[in-house]
Design brief:
132 residues; mainly alpha; 6 helices
Amino acid sequence: MALKDGRDDEYVVCALLHDIGDLLGSYNHADLAAVILEPFVSEAHHWMVKHHGIVQGDHFFHHIGLDRHLRDRLKDHAHYELTADFVERFDNRAFDPDHPVAPIEIFVPLVHRVLAQPRQSLYLDALAPSDR
């Protein structure tokens, strides 16, 4: 949906991989996805991935004993609106089993481009400028 909407490669890759943490930790899936993507994406997109579960929680947290208004604590953050828009426009709509799904091959070049070179990493920071 994000690709069809004309979003940039980084946003599309974040949309594609934002739930990758579900495979290992259903209660901290967003944290896991954010850690994987952090070296490769902007601060805004990293924040979006990291907090999408909380922002989305107003739809279901009350069903699992959590505060459905937890997202309100984040509303003053600079990247809140980006995240809320992502959740409403793409993440919530992705639960529709009848929504058409693009073949994975379309996304392979995008993933390769975005994940080709880290922007930030403790390993990059540890290298002296002459070593880069």
